[in-house]
């Protein structure tokens, strides 16, 4: 080590120590002046400070620094703590003092990056000149400065520092060598010896604690590893490895949220580090496992295949059957051999077998090989190759020629959905996760149905929808995922339906669920408390013999109140509907994107309004940006030439004008993201070399593009905060961060950002709308109405948010029940819709749908369009109807073949179903109360259903699909039917003692063995729509003439979604 350069570094360190002493003295003097009492270095002083003037500082610093502040011992406060105190409190707001403090921290941060502890003479002179001026301002005399630089005591300090640094470097190197030999215990001892040396700089200590943390982690001492990682971070908050060690320690302690947060921080320091991304992906995957308990893990697959293989091996003539299967599908032999090796934990041989099957284009082999690549079993972890295999499998047909599922397809789709949801094998995208979950559900994946239900239950990446979540959980149970049962209990508990929660928890407990056993006592207590709270409602229900099993407590109270006050029922119902739905309203919603906007139409309108002109310019810039991107994307390297700059400027201009126009096409979104990130890195380097105004403007455009393209990324909040720190007067960074704060329900933080934008640009139209929406979300209805009024005063009449502003003001008026105001705003919104650009019609607004309830019930002239959205969105409904229609077609083909006059394909049921001797005391039951995972007869219950498909008689039974009053669906098979029953689509039946049976295909159905247990109601739905179920349908299929429809939309949907062509015959 060059002694002269090292001495220079030591002198600067000593000057920084002196500066810290000066700030300590300044703090003590200011404190005594303000409080008329001396600071006593006691916990009492520390708590007084952190609870009052220093509260903001306390919230800002790290956990260890919080401890130092609480202790009140300012001898342990470092330069960063004093900096926070003087910048975040009003102890000293002198502008010159603040400027010197800023320069001091800049020097300190610069010195921290000299990892080699060398400062050249030229650098030293620059630092010395700056520090001398700062220290003189802080009260240090010239004589004191001379003493620090030249005195014998300083030389002695430098010598000690020099010797200790040299010793610590030697010990650190010895420790590093031991780590390479995997002798972690001895390495930790070496790092400890180095740490105990006095006078080491913070940077050195940070590295040593980080290294020891790594050793402790390898030794399984995770708590000690965590403490060392925290110390490393405190000593150097910009040290990358400190955050990596924190993430590793938190992962091992199963605190995955904190692990992900620290990996995110590490990535913010090194955006292109794939190793950190992989560790974060692993943390996200483990977090998902912890929350869902349904991952396609190797262990789970082993258990499943062991049961399946054992079942096959118990069959007679197994050897002949196996030989036949292998001759028909040679790849299956390799797949099953892979399963055998996998189940015996010989992953290397299993991977080789799966590879052979994959080479033969086996979906199951390719899927299992991808899974091994994700988990690193038998092969190296390879996310890109795993992704490639999963995408390839997802292109296979999900069902074979016999309509049997092709193993590997829905599993691959589920894995892709998990990857996008967690951000593991691909960049995180809840939007694409939903797409893949829905695709897997359409191929009968119970795990995907369960996971998508969780998203709807929690409002995680989708609008919260309790009914949709319930349907999906029930669908998951029908498709065989037992985890859905405990989740369904959680749903009922959170939505206030304690009766259902109790029943399903009991079913889950019988299946051996530990979760069900743990919460049984709590649910019982909740039931007792709820019944005590509504004892008068229970008495009222008993007097009138009213059912309540399928109702929430709130609905039961509402029913009683409506009965006693029928004149208020309409308004009460509207308020109840709004109470249930309004939580799902979000302040911003992305709509259609890019080329879907007609440039010619906008060109005709652009001179008529400011908004149309902004739209025109936004679309024009977007189209030119995309065109430029496809020309530069072909290059092998990324350079900051004119084309790249034009691409960024055009895209940023689009985002600044109307960001929703620039929604990227899914197939190229990832490539554009990566390209923008690379251009941003180039721009950051260019800015570091030059403060040219044009370069700074381009850098801001790069950052805007990166922020918008990564809106839902976990790192985006930190990235935007960094942008705002660098460019405090750029309103776009503040607006984007404000929207993100709203997305994570931090509305106060969002409001601060929007207020700051208002200071920068008083009449920014979009910001005024965001501010109003934020105030509404915070419950400040009056302020929100005022903000909406201000927005309307400056917005063009065709601005896309004008109708929404009126509808939102109407919702705000609900607080004081101002019906006239509600109706006025509703009508204003409708009138504003007429001035909208055609792209935004029909106008999509949750606020409008909620608000429309009030004018409809209180005599308004406008009616709300009724759309059975939830019913038609049920994936189980679609699956059962299509399967029934396919069965109807196939049976017809078989019966038309003269060689097959009769088909007998059934199995003896494990239970016996019959009509009761007495019908007294029968209780109603609904499909969402019946456990579809096990065979059982529901004695003493009656199930009321409506047929939603045309029944067909296969000579053994009459089969059809039916729904109950909650729109839940199930298959029904009626056996032994000698008597004449009028069964047709739209018929209403009651089944007494229904038998829920697991059929031969492994899926549930309602079986009726005794026709006397079926009552057909004389009241049926006449001319029932074959799609949505409405009666009095006026339209018919032009080809078969039998299918009825209430609208053209239903006919199109029935043809496309429900495969009407399967049964459409003249």
Automatic annotation (TrEMBL):
Keywords: Metal-binding, Repeat, TPR repeat, Zinc, Zinc-finger. Signal peptide: none annotated. GO terms for biological process: post-translational protein targeting to endoplasmic reticulum membrane. It comes from the Eukaryota. One of its GO terms (molecular function) is zinc ion binding. The keyword Transmembrane helix does not apply. Gene3D superfamilies: 2.40.50.550, 6.10.140.2220, Tetratricopeptide repeat domain. One of its GO terms (cellular component) is TRC complex. SUPFAM superfamilies: HCP-like (SSF81901), HIT/MYND zinc finger-like (SSF144232), TPR-like (SSF48452). It holds the Pfam family zf-MYND. TPR repeats lie at residues 240-273. The keyword Cytoplasm does not apply. Residues 1025-1064 form the MYND-type domain. PANTHER family: LD24721P (PTHR45831:SF2). This is Stress-induced-phosphoprotein 1.
């Amino acid at each position: 080590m060059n002694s002269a350069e090292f001495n220079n570094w030591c002198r600067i360190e000593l000057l920084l120590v002196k500066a810290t002493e000066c700030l300590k003295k300044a703090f003590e003097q200011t404190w005594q002046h303000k409080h008329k009492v001396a600071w006593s270095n006691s916990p009492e002083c520390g708590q007084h400070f952190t609870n009052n003037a220093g509260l903001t500082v306390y919230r800002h610093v790290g956990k260890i620094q919080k401890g130092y502040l609480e202790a009140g011992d300012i001898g342990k406060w470092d330069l960063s703590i004093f900096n926070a105190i003087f910048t975040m409190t009003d102890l000293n707001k002198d502008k010159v003092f603040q400027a010197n403090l800023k320069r001091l921290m800049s020097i300190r941060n610069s010195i921290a990056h000299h990892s080699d502890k060398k400062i050249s003479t030229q650098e030293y002179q620059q630092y010395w000149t700056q520090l001398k001026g700062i220290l003189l301002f802080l009260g240090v005399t010239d004589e004191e400065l001379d003493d620090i630089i030249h005195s014998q005591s300083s030389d002695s300090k430098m010598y000690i520092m020099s010797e200790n640094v040299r010793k610590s470097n030697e010990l650190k190197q010895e420790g590093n060598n031991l780590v390479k030999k995997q002798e972690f215990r001895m390495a930790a001892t070496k790092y400890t010896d180095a740490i105990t040396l006095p006078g080491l700089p913070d940077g050195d200590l940070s590295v040593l604690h980080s290294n020891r943390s790594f050793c402790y982690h390898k030794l399984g001492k995770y708590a000690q590893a965590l403490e060392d990682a925290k110390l490393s971070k405190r000593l150097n908050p910009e040290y990358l490895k400190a955050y990596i060690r924190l993430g590793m320690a938190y992962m091992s302690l199963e605190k995955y949220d904190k692990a992900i947060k620290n990996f995110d921080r590490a990535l913010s320091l090194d955006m292109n580090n794939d190793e950190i991304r992989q560790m974060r992906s692993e943390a996200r995957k483990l977090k998902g496992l912890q929350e869902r308990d349904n991952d396609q893990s190797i262990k789970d697959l082993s258990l499943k295949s062991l049961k399946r293989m054992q079942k096959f091996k118990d069959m007679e003539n197994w050897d002949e059957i196996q030989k036949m299967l292998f001759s028909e599908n040679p790849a299956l032999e390799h797949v099953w051999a892979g399963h055998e090796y996998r189940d015996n934990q010989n992953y290397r041989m299993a991977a080789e077998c799966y590879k052979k099957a994959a080479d033969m284009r086996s979906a199951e082999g390719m899927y299992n090989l991808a899974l091994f690549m994700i988990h690193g079993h038998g092969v190296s972890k390879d996310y890109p190759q795993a992704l490639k295999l999963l995408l390839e499998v997802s292109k296979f047909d999900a069902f074979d020629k016999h309509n049997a599922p092709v193993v590997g397809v829905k599993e691959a789709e589920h894995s892709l959905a998990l990857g996008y949801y967690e951000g593991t094998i691909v960049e995180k995208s809840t939007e694409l996760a939903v797409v893949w979950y829905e695709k897997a559900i359409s191929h009968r994946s119970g795990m995907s149905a369960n996971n998508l239900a969780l998203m709807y239950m929690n409002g995680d990446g989708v609008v919260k929808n309790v009914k949709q979540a319930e349907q999906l959980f029930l669908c998951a149970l029908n498709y065989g995922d037992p985890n859905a049962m405990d989740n369904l209990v959680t749903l009922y508990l959170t939505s206030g339906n304690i009766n259902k929660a109790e029943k399903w928890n009991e079913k889950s407990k019988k299946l051996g669920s530990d979760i069900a056993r743990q919460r049984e006592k709590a649910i019982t207590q909740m039931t007792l408390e709820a019944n005590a709270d509504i004892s008068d409602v229970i008495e009222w229900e008993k007097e009138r013999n009213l059912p309540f099993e399928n109702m929430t407590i709130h609905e039961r109270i509402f029913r009683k109140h409506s009965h006693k006050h029928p004149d208020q029922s309409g308004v009460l119902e509207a308020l109840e509907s709004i109470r249930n739905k309004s939580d799902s309203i979000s302040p911003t919603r992305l709509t259609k994107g890019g080329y879907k906007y007609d440039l010619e139409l906008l060109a005709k309108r652009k001179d008529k309004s400011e908004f149309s002109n902004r739209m025109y310019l936004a679309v024009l810039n977007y189209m030119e940006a995309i065109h430029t991107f496809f020309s530069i994307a072909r290059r092998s390297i990324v350079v900051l030439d004119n084309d790249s700059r034009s691409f960024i400027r055009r895209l940023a201009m689009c985002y600044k004008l109307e960001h929703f126009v620039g929604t990227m096409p899914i197939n190229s979104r990832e490539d554009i993201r990566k390209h923008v990130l690379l251009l941003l890195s180039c721009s950051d380097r260019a800015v570091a070399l030059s403060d040219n105004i044009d370069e700074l403007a381009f850098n801001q455009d790069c950052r805007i593009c990166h922020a918008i393209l990564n809106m839902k990324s976990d790192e985006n909040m930190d990235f935007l905060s960094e942008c705002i720190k660098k460019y405090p007067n750029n309103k776009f960074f503040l607006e984007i961060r404000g929207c993100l704060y709203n997305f994570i329900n931090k509305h106060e933080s969002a409001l601060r950002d929007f207020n700051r934008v208002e200071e920068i640009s008083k009449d920014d139209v979009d910001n005024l709308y965001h501010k109003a929406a934020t105030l509404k979300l915070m419950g400040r209805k009056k302020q929100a109405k005022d903000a909406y009024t201000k927005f309307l005063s400056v917005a063009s009449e065709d601005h896309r948010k004008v109708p929404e502003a009126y509808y939102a003001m109407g919702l705000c008026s609900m607080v004081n029940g101002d019906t006239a105001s509600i109706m006025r705003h509703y009508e204003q919104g409708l009138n504003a819709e007429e001035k909208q650009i055609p792209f935004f019609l029909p106008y999509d607004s949750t606020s409008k749908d909620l608000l429309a309830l009030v004018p409809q019930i209180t005599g308004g002239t406008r009616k709300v369009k009724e759309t059975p959205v939830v019913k038609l969105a049920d994936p189980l409904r679609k699956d059962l109807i299509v399967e029934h229609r396919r069965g109807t077609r196939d049976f017809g083909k078989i019966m038309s073949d003269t060689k097959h006059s009769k088909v007998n394909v059934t199995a003896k049921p494990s239970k016996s179903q019959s009509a009761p001797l007495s019908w007294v005391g029968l209780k109603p039951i609904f499909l969402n109360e019946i456990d579809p995972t096990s065979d059982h007869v529901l004695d003493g219950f009656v199930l009321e259903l409506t047929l939603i498909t045309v029944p067909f008689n296969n000579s053994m039974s009459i089969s059809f699909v039916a729904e109950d009053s909650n729109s839940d669906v199930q298959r029904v098979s009626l056996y032994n039917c000698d008597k004449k029953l009028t069964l047709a689509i739209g018929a209403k039946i009651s089944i007494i003692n229904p038998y829920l049976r697991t059929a031969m295909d492994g899926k549930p159905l309602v079986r009726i063995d005794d026709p006397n247990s079926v009552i057909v109601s004389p009241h049926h739905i006449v001319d029932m729509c074959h799609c949505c179920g409405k009666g009095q349908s006026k339209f018919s299929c032009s080809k078969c003439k039998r299918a009825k429809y209430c609208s053209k939309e239903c006919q199109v949907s029935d043809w496309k979604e429900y495969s009407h062509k399967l049964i459409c015959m003249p």
